[in-house]
Structure formats: C-alpha cells, structure tokens
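Read as chain and fold; for instance:
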Amino acid sequence: MLAAVVTGLAVLAPAAGAQVGTGPWVSDSPGYNTQQKGCGQVSGLTFKLTCSSTSGEQRAERRYDTYSGGTHQFEGSFKITSMTGSRISLKQTFRDGSNAGPYFLLAVEKGGRMYAVEGGATLGSGATVGTSVRVNTINQVGSSHKVYLNGSLKQTISSPSGSYYDKFGSYRTSSGAGPITVTWSGVKFWHK
C-alpha cells in the first residue's frame, strides 16, 4: 500500500513543476480586470473577436496587476477554436508607468505562424485551429525577457528597468483582423 502511495506521488510531482526556467519560484495570484472593446467578447477564459474590421480597437483580454522589479513568470495554454482572421495578438507583456506601451506581443497568423509583433521575428508554427500551445514568459526586470513555446526557449530580448504587466486573450494588431475564438487554460504566475 505504501509503495502505491509513493508511486502515485511521484507521478503527480511533475505537474506542480510545469514552469520553465531556474527556480525556486513562488506562486503568485495577481488581480486582473477584463477588457472588451469593439467586437471583443470575453466569457470566462474564452476570448472572441466577432468581426472582420481592419480599423478601430478590437480587444477581448485580461489585464493583470502591474509589477516592478524582480523576476516574473507567466504560463498559460491557448487553443484557437475558430479563426478566419489573421495577425491577432494572444499574449502581451506591456510596460507601465512613465514608459507605458507595447513591449512584447505574441501574435498568430491564420496559417499557424506565431511571431513577435515588435520586430516581426517568427517564434514558432503550428498554432492552428484545435491545437493547444503552452506559452511561458519570464521577465527579469532590468535584464531579460524570455519567451517559451511548449517548453522551448524561442526568444530572449533586453528588459529595461521599470514597471510591467501581463495580458492575454485576443487583440487585433494594426495589420490584423478577426474573427477569432481562442480559449486559454492552465494560467499560472510565479515570481522570485
């Protein structure tokens, strides 16, 4: 009986350590607010852009609390359930305070290409309808911002000092348009 219990614990242990990067990590539970603009609709962890407009602000997102300093990790998985549009941002790390504005935006094109909106670098492929993709971002404020897709490091950029916050959902980029429906799951935050 004891062996069965110990074996069961060993099987469960990896799920608690799903985050990437070197720890130790401390679990976080930041607050958030829901943002819906234009044809954006939010229902729980499902985010929709219901129109094909190429103008105006089309947004359905969660915006999490601002942090300053330290190292912060986001993890979540998205699954696109329908998409006839393209160039939609799904995960963002924004700067806040006196330098507020876009810093890192992970977007997807209709064919499944995932890319960084700032600079246009391809970060991966396979983000097609019905496929789940795990996203981790690690922001070491004042040092580096790292992006992982399905556990593999895809990008490292410089992270200036200052304040930041995380967002996810669906957001029309300046060159994009919906419609899209995407569901997020397994959303977690850590810091160290």
